[in-house]
Amino acid sequence: MSEWGFDRKGASVKRFADLTEQEVLALAITNEEEDGRIYRDFAQGLREQFPASAKVFDEMADEEVHHRTILYDLYRKKFGEYLPLIRRNDVKDFIPHKATPWLSRPLVLGDARKFAEKMEEQAQRFYRKAADGARDISIRQLLLDLAEAEAGHEDLAHKLSEKILTDSERAKEDAASKRVFMLQYVQPGLAGLMDGSVSTLAPLFAAAFATHNTWQTFLVGIAASVGAGISMAFAEGLSDDGSLTGRGSPWIRGPVCGLMTAIGGLGHTLPYLIPHFVTATVLAIVVVVIELAAISWIRMRYMDTPFLRAAFQVVVGGTMVFIAGILIGSS
Questions:
Q1: Which range of residues forms the domain containing residue 258?
Q2: What pLDDT digit, counting tens, does each position of 179-188 carry?
Q3: Per residue in 248-281, is it b (16+ CB within 10 Å) or e — as a string?
Q4: Cβ-proximal residues to 92 (8 Å cutoff; 6+ apart), any chain
Q5: Which of 107, 139, 165 is at the close of a domain?
Q6: Tens digits of per-residue pLDDT, 61-79?
Q7: Of 83, 198, 208, 299, which residue is most buried, by most CB within 10 angstroms?
Q8: Do 9 and 148 share a domain, yes or no?
Q9: Which helix (H) or strand (E) holds 12?
Q10: Distance from C-alpha of 100 to C-alpha of 107, rounded to nearest angstrom
Q11: Is-contact 157 121, C-beta < 8 A?
């Protein structure tokens, strides 16, 4: 009976337990080469903003190359020059990489570190589990040696981090990481929240005081919030591609800005689901005050703007739009 089977996509795969010693060694060589290239991609993606961490990944990539050389020398000594092509996805029990964060740009430092740790941990656990089920002594010893090598990779990463990432370098990279977070999430999110919370006040309260109908007012608020969210998402996403400004992918900034815009408008729209007009309007005004206070706090927390100054700027703008809506609706 054939040792080969098929995965869910119909591709031919083989159980790890059925691999020969030659195939196990060939798989280890392929894995070391692939992991080394992943570390090198991580280093390349981090080099501009996080040079110290990029150096750590370069060192880890070099170590993977060294391990591959040792494995390949042993393989040629035992089996000759022919090296069968066998990869993770050719083995049924092996854990493939389900994500490719090393290809993402801009690369998130925390994601790179976590993924690298997970790579080594999964590989070590897999080799140890495979060794437990191996009957051949030489295969069992080989798998245990590979597991120890993977454990050594984790120790190397820790030692390299301590050696290269000094306190000053960590402080620099933490500041750079905070800046990336600000540019990609906080700024577009805050711009959206401000736009949604302020710009929708006029149409909402104009409809409220013109109709005194909570359901009609709710529909106007929903339309204004959703429309503003879509508009802001496109405006932010199409403003620039982030390559020169460092603001990151427009596919992230656009949805963040659009979502926060919609949330800002929906906050003071939802009270108009209450049938009683006065109650709904009072509650909507309370929500507006909370929204403006939240915006002021975010500006103080992330933009280093004094709270009173931020509150004054936001409240003045919000009050002007609010009064405009009431006057238009009452005319």
A1: 172-330
A2: 677 777 778 8
A3: bebebbbbbbbbbbbbbbbbbbbbbebeebeebb
A4: 5, 7, 13, 14, 15, 16
A5: 165
A6: 888 888 888 888 878 888 8
A7: 208
A8: yes
A9: strand 12-14
A10: 11
A11: no
